[in-house]
Design a protein that fits this description.
By secondary structure, the protein is α/β, with parallel strands linked by helices. Helix 4 (112-125) links the parallel strand 4 (90-96) and strand 5 (126-136). The chain starts with a helix and ends with a strand. It is built from five helices and seven strands; from the N terminus they run H-E-H-E-H-E-E-H-E-H-E-E. The structure holds S-adenosylmethionine. The site of S-adenosylmethionine (SAM) has 20 residues, from helix 2 and strand 2.
């Protein structure tokens, strides 16, 4: 059976190579940051963002325990401020929307008012042949609304500049799904 996480990673890896610059816009427990860190290796750079100090601590642990190269910058700030920290193009970006798993702090979920400007800026920062992955969790109210908002916005992007696709399990409507934005 198709595993959406494996599918997400294979999309990212088809665009990313050693030495590239990338960003994890929702660090959480650092699993995506670790994946990106290993993908770009010693000579690459990973910028990672979260609004919770506990996410940075947890990510630091994940990166150390997985033996990741020291190619990452962990930033305690909202992803809609990412441009202040990333002064260069990125080859890949990941948004895993929602709240920190296992934290019990569901109120600290990503929200439409900051998700939209963050996604717009991330698309602007994309290098040619760059990729943005946005995973949406429609099983909670804000997640469902984020997905509707993103579909509306992403549908407006020029097909001559970007390819936007959506991957969703049709017979499980509350399962997570994701958008892929690829810059031509
Ligand atoms: C589903 S978790 C991410 C999981 C993570 N990618 C991993 O591999 O463990 C979503 C994260 O987004 C963070 N978040 C919420 N609002 C944010 C914002 N405005 N900017 C950056 N991160 C935010 C939450 O604190 C939470 O840790």
């Amino acid at each position: 059976m198709t595993d959406l996480l494996t599918l997400q990673k294979s999309f990212i890896l088809s665009h990313l190579k050693k030495g590239d610059v990338c960003a994890d816009f929702t660090m959480g427990n650092g699993h995506d940051t670790a994946f990106l860190s290993k993908a770009v290796g010693e000579s690459g750079r990973v910028y990672a963002f979260d609004i919770q100090e506990s996410a940075l601590a947890s990510t630091r642990k994940t990166l150390e325990s997985e033996g990741c190269p020291q190619n990452y910058t962990l930033i305690l700030d909202s992803h809609h401020n990412a441009k202040k920290y990333i002064g260069e193009k990125i080859k890949a970006g990941m948004f895993n929307l929602g709240y920190l798993p296992g934290s019990g702090k569901k109120e600290l979920t990503t929200k439409r008012e900051t998700t939209l400007p963050a996604v717009k800026d991330a698309i602007e920062m994309l290098d040619s042949d760059g990729i943005l992955l946005i995973a949406v969790y429609p099983g909670h109210a804000e997640g469902e609304l984020e997905g509707i908002m993103l579909k509306e916005y992403l549908s407006t992007l020029s097909r001559f500049e970007m390819s936007v696709s959506k991957f969703r399990i049709v017979n499980s409507p509350t399962s997570p799904y994701f958008f892929i934005v690829e810059k031509k």
